[in-house]
Amino acid sequence: MSSGFARGRRLRSTPALRRLTAQTRLSPADFVLPVFVKQGIEEPVAIGSMPGVVQHTLDSLRKAGQEAAEAGIGGMMLFGIPGEKDPVGSQADAADGIVNVALQQLRADLGNELVLMADLCLCEYTDHGHCGVVTPAGVVDNDPTLDRYAAVAVAQAQAGAHVIAPSGMMDGQVAAIRRALDGAAYTETPILAYAAKYASGFYGPFREAAEGAPRFGDRSTYQMDPPNADEALREVAQDLAEGADAVMVKPALPYLDIVARVADAVHVPVSAYQVSGEYAMVEAAAANGWVDRERAILETLTAIRRAGAGTVLTYWAVEAARLLR
């Protein structure tokens, strides 16, 4: 038999060769850890649908922050569950609001060692569970919601957030937040826009974790419709035109085509969020012995990076960083 044909196996024969020829590499600095902090609890509360993930106390969050910094990951994304909710989400921009206090403490502990990102939305803070101000007819009112987002952005920046990350999918949110930050002398604070955030069935466990499920209806009128791809590029372009410094696609694995298209289209950092349902599926399958858990973790993260995401938000951030050592 002729030996003149190409043999791809030549470069796969040893682990060292495979490492040498790997096109996509994972690094702890690629990962951002989403965390939940809840007001009024004395011990961390386990999240049943997300094994290994908890609602933190302020103290346990500070410990998690130290562990994240020691693991060398890129950052943390903070979500808060307040003690009290109301129609406009007042605790989101309150000086003593749970996320703002957590940001102050983490910034004091860690300085600039870890990038502290503040998710900016109202669903965890409103008694109706929607991402903005709701009209008497039960419709999320876009423009009054922008005023709330602007106030929350300034409060988060004052509390010490390095990055403001609006996720509410209101039209014009980036422009409103940029104006507010600049007007409050936070011109150097970047915005990571959840630019292509889909109305996904993979958010279920998150709603348990963040206690932010809508009390009526759903979010289909403001989050993106899953069949649409070109619309994602329009949303990304709009956010960049309004002043976003980086953009995000959410979820990640079911939308790798979107990640790839966005990464090809823009010249700013692109993030992708490996959401709660993605995490829960792997954990459940691994618990049943159906997949090799550690291989599945690293393989999914590699897929997201291979698609073009420079940064991956993942609940496995610290564990994955340790696996890469």
UniProtKB/TrEMBL annotation:
Zn(2+) binds at C121, C123, C131. Pathway: Porphyrin-containing compound metabolism; protoporphyrin-IX biosynthesis; coproporphyrinogen-III from 5-aminolevulinate: step 1/4. It comes from the Bacteria. 5-aminolevulinate 1 binds at R207, R219. GO terms for molecular function: porphobilinogen synthase activity; zinc ion binding. It is an enzyme of class 4 (lyase). 5-aminolevulinate 2 binds at S276, Y315. The keyword Cell membrane does not apply. Belongs to the ALAD family. Homooctamer. This is Delta-aminolevulinic acid dehydratase.
